[in-house]
Every structure is written in C-alpha cells, then in structure tokens.
Amino acid sequence: MSESPDYFTVSQNLSLEHRVKDSLFIAHLSSAPNRQTAEKFINKIRVEFSDANHNCFAYRIGKEDRCDYRFDDDGEPGGSSGRPILQAMESRKLSDAVIVVTRYFGGTKLGVGGLIRAYGGAAFICIDAADLQPVIPKVILKIQFDYDFTGAIHNLISQFDGVIKTTDYSDFINLEVEIMKDRRASIVQKLTDATRGKIRIQ
C-alpha cells in the first residue's frame, strides 16, 4: 500500500471570489514554505487590497505533528475569520501555505456565525479549486559499500527515485540517500541482493 501524504501543499497562487449577502470575499492562496514567505504574501495582499474592509489570514507551515501556524481577524469579531480559514486548511491537511481572505463589506451585517461560514467557505472554495500537491514522508538511508558495486547501487537509487544527499569516498563509499518512506523496505532488500549482503545500511 502506498504511503499516505503527511500533508498537501500548493505550487501556484490562486484567487477566487465568493459573495455572501452583498459582501465580496476574495480568497488568495499561496505557497509558504516558511513564516517569512507567508508574512511577505500577507503584506502584499494588504497593500494590493488596501481599500478593502478586512484582509484576514491564516497560514500553516510544516508537518501535522509540529505545525507552525498563525491566524488574524484583522478587525473582524474575535474567532470569526482567521480561525475558520485555519480550520479549513486543517480539514484539507493543507500546509506550507497561506490564505488571505479579503472582504469588501456590502452593507448587510452577517453576525459572528455568518462570518465564520463566509470566511471558512471562501477558504474551502479556494483550497478545493487548487492543484494540491501531496507531501510524502521521506527517510534518509545511510549506506556503505565497496567501490565494485557503485554502478549497481546508483542504478537502484535511480529506480527508486532516491536523492543522494551526501557522498564520502574513503576505504568504502558512504552515501546518505533520501527516499520515500514506503519504499524503504523494498530498496533495502534490492541493495542487499545486488551486493550479495556486502553492504551496511542504517
């Protein structure tokens, strides 16, 4: 069975409009591999849509178990805007991303419940329309082998879409190779077979 993604992210920016009782909500979605990138995008939207009534946001960075996040209501009632955006991201396991929802007030008050649905709904619409990219768990293999097996080892690493992170040449060749977690057992067996057991793997 293929390894399920740690989370999903996006590679392209996307903006979509959502109208609720005459108010215009525009959800802006962007990749954010770190906090600095997220804050830069938020500031960009705030400048570009400086005439809007509110520019509320949320971002999530990193894996589910150690996710860095932040949200802001930008003047809307507490808990009515930034948190629903964040909850939409959590629901779709979206991370390394930022969403800013711009609101142009249309004259009809929505109430806290209405705002929660409007901001969360705008975020969901944008996320669901985006081309989400799965982030698959990866592991590092440390392998040591004789020079005679160089060709066979490199071929196997390529077949398993591995990425060589470090190489050290001494009495033996030492590699650190990044591979998808769900392929670890298979490549270990193949490496062992190809070298007739003359390989060290950690």
Explain this structure.
The radius of gyration is 23 Å and the shape is elongated. The protein is α+β, with helices and mostly antiparallel strands and 202 residues long. The protein contains five helices and eleven strands, in the order E-E-E-H-E-E-H-E-H-E-E-H-E-E-H-E. The model has no long low-confidence stretch (mean pLDDT 92). The longest helix has 19 residues, at 111-129. The strands form three sheets. Strands 2-3-6-4-5 form a five-stranded antiparallel β-sheet, sandwiched between helices.
CATH topology of the largest domain, what is it called? Ribosomal Protein S5, domain 2
Mean pLDDT: 92
The count of domains is 2
CATH architecture of the largest domain: 2-Layer Sandwich
DSSP summary, beta strand count: 11
What's a concise summary of this model?
The protein has helices spanning 35-48, 82-91, 111-129, 150-159, 184-194; strands spanning 7-10, 14-20, 23-31, 54-61, 68-72, 97-104, 132-135, 138-145, 163-169, 173-180, 199-201. It is an alpha+beta fold and 202 residues long.
